[in-house]
Amino acid sequence: MTPNAGPTEAHEHSSGPSNLMDQAQLLYVDGRYQPSSDGATFLVNNPMTSHRIYNCASASVDDYSLAIENAHEAYQSWSKTGPTARRMIFLKAAGILESYLHRDAGEIMSQEISAPDYWVKINIHSTAGTLREVAGLATQIRGEVIPTDRPGTTAFMERQPVGVVFGIAPWNAPVNLTARAIACPLICRNTVVLKPSEYSPKSQHLVVRALAAAGLPLGCLNFLPTSPKRTPQVTEFAVKHPKVLRVTFTGSDRVGRIIGGWAAECVKQCILELGGNAPVLVFDDANIDEAVEAVVFGACEKFKAKLLAKVATVKTGNHLEYFGVSFSGLFTPASARRVIELVKSAVHGGAKLLAGDVEITGPNKTIVRPHILEG
Fold first, then answer.
1. Of the residues 144, 273, 290, 321, which is catalytic?
2. Is 273 among the catalytic positions?
3. What are the pLDDT digits (tens) for 243-273?
């Protein structure tokens, strides 16, 4: 049996339709593209313009139940697949994913997450690298020999897959973080049910497309976007489902606590990467030029001066209108307002504003220039 090609999954070696972004995104369950069980959909909007891009199928609890059952069934054969076969699928998928740079990846990520061209390339190339690196792990899943007290006997420990893994990946680096949620579980012979962000289904679906086109067997990877309204219900259902034995989540600490609590009720292991700040410490013996390059993409006076000079050259604006934009809009108007609130709060608390105009611009009020504070 071969996977059914959905509206967003034309033959991988064809040029594909030019109006791909106008097509609805369907669920991908057991190798088939299908609408939600009750026909529900939700809108995916362009964060820069707030205009509708497309309708996306909204998975229900019934859809998740079916996907988990199919993943459990697929596990019975995938868990017996040899390392060479798994490695070859991942290596092929890496090449297919990179080919999307010349097809629709740029348009998809630009429309969904306001990604400038350089960010599209970083996501695709780094994800292809992740798939190639993970492919090499297929033969590195080793056990351990353990000494025993009984003469003539040897004990050994063998690593085994666990079954169905439920993964939740965010929108901010949609291709890379999707691959990170699914690649290691799959190469270790588990199967995956993936919930993408409601903001970036098509961007995250790029990884699913590549693996399916590379020959990943039916049911091993299931892709179920759902609306914000349904997300709490389907997430709790999936986390607590008896055939889901591991959970991986990247997102906010608030949601991570909720998911961790649900998993704890069922005594399930979780991998949680939660939100937080990313401070940078620059010491007086550091290479200042290299530190500036790293931070842009306070400290001593020399560093501050070079940082301000570098930030002054950063081009911010609507990537849909201007070429060479380094920083496009934030993801939502609320995100932009939150950044400005943080800047104002810092200034009110005594910080000195060295760069930035404390303004929000853009057609959807999402563009915020880089700000530098001292204090």
1. 273
2. yes
3. 999 999 999 899 999 999 999 999 999 999 9
